[in-house]
Amino acid sequence: KAGVTQTPRYLIKTRGQQVTLSCSPISGHRSVSWYQQTPGQGLQFLFEYFSETQRNKGNFPGRFSGRQFSNSRSEMNVSTLELGDSALYLCASRLAPGQAGNTIYFGEGSWLTVV
Amino acid sequence: KQEVTQIPAALSVPEGENLVLNCSFTDSAIYNLQWFRQDPGKGLTSLLLIQSSQREQTSGRLNASLDKSSGRSTLYIAASQPGDSATYLCAVNGDNYGQNFVFGPGTRLSVLP
Predict the structure, then answer these.
(1) Which residues in chain B have their CB less than 8 angstroms from residue A102's CB?
(2) Residue B16's pLDDT is what?
(3) Chain A interface, mutation test: which of B35, B44, B51, B57, most A Cβ atoms within 10 Å?
(4) FRET pair for B109, CA 20 to 30 Å: which of A18, A70, A80, A103?
(5) According to the model, what pLDDT value does residue B34 have?
(6) Which residues 64-93 on chain A approach chain B with CB closer than 8 angstroms?
């Protein structure tokens, strides 16, 4: 079956703009989480959605937001882009949170460059 | 606050060697620990998931162990191949920090032909 699909794969934005990234989870997976990966900070948790509700949020400013739709697809939005937002944004899906046996699967990521 | 560290940060070995990657975490209240590999510019590929009640998991040439009480996990790779070259990350998932995954910084492995 299809894996986690993220679009777009690559994008370049100007400082001050906003960006929306999309993620389609593996079929049947209802939990979607987002991570930011940078060379300096590594992989950092942004937020997790389950059944259209945000369950957890990492330590990021309010410019980072997300949502989940009834078909489990998710979007994340970053407003007022800063140079430091340049990163690989990874989406991951799993069946549901809070269960020890749930493997988490990642997409290929969206490369965001802010100039 | 959960913190995950990985040793070594980088490792270069000749093809055919057996090797061990280490992962340590500070909070033992975890649901599970997962090992991933990441190829340059790519997403993460899940290798092994160890639940908190388990001691180890095996998949092909890979074996991962978990000692929850001491906050340690090891990933053993047998008979390494050039195709194993990648960054290996461990991540822990637990209740004390909102059930999200906390990742280590990774070990960058190079297997030389």
Answers:
(1) 32
(2) 97
(3) B44
(4) A103
(5) 93
(6) 90, 92
* Structure token pair of residue A25: 């989870």
Question: Which tokens hold the place of A29?
Answer: 């997976």
> Mean pLDDT, to the nearest integer, of B69-85?
97
Instruction: Check residue B69 and report its DSSP letter.
Output: T
Q: Say whether A106 and B46 touch across the interface (CB within 8 A).
A: yes
Burial category of B5 from C-beta neighbours within 10 Å (exposed 0-12, middle 13-18, buried 19 and up): middle
HEC states along chain A? CCCCEEECCEEEECCCCCEEEEEECCCCCCEEEEEEEECCCEEEEEEEEECCEEEEECCCCCCEEEEECCCCCEEEEECCCCHHHCEEEEEEEECCCCCCCCCCEECCCEEEEEC
